[in-house]
Design a protein that fits this description.
The chain is of the alpha/beta class. The chain contains eleven helices and twelve strands.
Length: about 325
């Protein structure tokens, strides 16, 4: 369905190739994942396949049509979900689906299916008559998916499709990708989520610095570790060996500070516990006199106890009277 042969792409004023000698195929009934670090060349490859980026070296054919020589026929076979959720915000969801269907030659029955059963499947049917400008990030991703599927493309391409989706919609999309491929369609998508790639893909194309580092058929390599291989591919051999279950770096004793690990090797350096200093708070009020144990046994206060202060004891009644004149200064006349 999709064939790339010696595809290369070099941007103007850049001596390095963004993609160099890329060759792989995506057959009907197959899900292929593009995996690579940021800047590896995944988006360049995808945008060249859909005809957005022009190129001069190599060939890309979709359903037998060359994307450079027969772009209209090739593009009609493609459904594309971008990573930036580009949509026409002034349209409603239903208008957007009908517009995309008209561009790709979808039948009225296909448009009704996309705005009906398919929209219900992805949980967005209730919002189809609302302007897209009011949609959330995840809802825009869903409407992009519907717009890409309205004409039932033979090749479905998704660039980071899981970004912005909640867990439930993510699982729905994973299942639908698998079902769509099983219905004799081809699916190509790029993702950094290796768990999704492992669940959905039949084949994985690893991209590194614009070149194909490896192509792994997961139908043959049943126990292949994507995480470990991805780390090794990017020069992180030490981290790659740590994907086996590891003990916790800190053991938490009851009622104590987490104690340092007991000396066993651990891939990440753990900082020493910070020193604990007593927290000093300034007193909000002057310290109140404490009542002695002997006076507490005598019973409640009668209002005539003595208060210590100065050279001789002062009764509580006299102390209250003195407070009324505490603010007066000598030589000051009060009216």
């Amino acid at each position: 369905m999709l064939v790339l042969k010696k595809f290369s792409k070099q941007y103007a004023k850049n001596p390095n190739y963004s993609a160099k000698d890329v060759s792989f195929t995506v057959s009907a009934g197959e899900v292929v994942g593009l995996v690579g670090s940021n800047g590896a060349g995944k988006s360049t490859i995808i945008k060249s396949i859909i005809g957005v980026l022009p190129f001069r070296e190599g060939t890309i054919t979709v359903g037998g049509y060359d994307i450079n020589r027969q772009p209209e026929k090739a593009k009609r076979l493609i459904g594309y979900v971008p990573d930036d959720h580009t949509v026409y915000e002034k349209l409603t969801g239903r208008e957007y689906i009908n517009y995309m269907g008209s561009l790709y030659g979808a039948t009225e029955q296909q448009k009704k299916y996309a705005a009906g059963e398919l929209a219900e499947h992805f949980g967005i049917r209730y919002a189809l008559d609302t302007q897209i400008a009011s949609y959330s990030h995840g809802m825009r991703q869903k409407i992009c998916i519907l717009g890409a599927l309205v004409h039932r493309p033979r090749l479905w391409i998704l660039d980071e499709p899981m970004v912005g989706l909640d867990h439930q919609t993510m699982m729905l999309l994973c299942n639908y990708i698998r079902e769509y491929a099983d219905d004799k369609h081809a699916v190509l998508f790029s993702s950094h989520n290796l768990d999704v790639v492992r669940k959905v893909c039949d084949k994985v194309v690893f991209i590194r610095k614009g070149r194909i580092a490896d192509i792994v058929d997961l139908r043959v390599e049943k126990n292949f570790s994507l995480d470990k291989y991805y780390m090794e591919l990017n020069g992180m051999q030490e981290e790659a060996g740590q994907f086996a279950p590891q003990p916790a770096p800190y053991a938490l004793p009851q009622g104590g500070y987490p104690a340092p690990w007991n000396g066993a090797a651990y891939p990440f350096a753990m900082p020493s516990p910070p020193p604990v200093y007593p927290v000093m708070y300034p007193p909000m009020y002057p310290s109140a006199p404490t009542q002695s144990a002997a006076s507490a046994e005598e019973g409640p206060s009668t209002g005539d106890e003595t208060v210590s202060g100065g050279d001789k004891p002062v009764s509580a009644t006299d102390a209250k009277k003195g407070k009324k004149h505490a603010g007066k200064k000598e030589g000051t006349r009060h009216v």
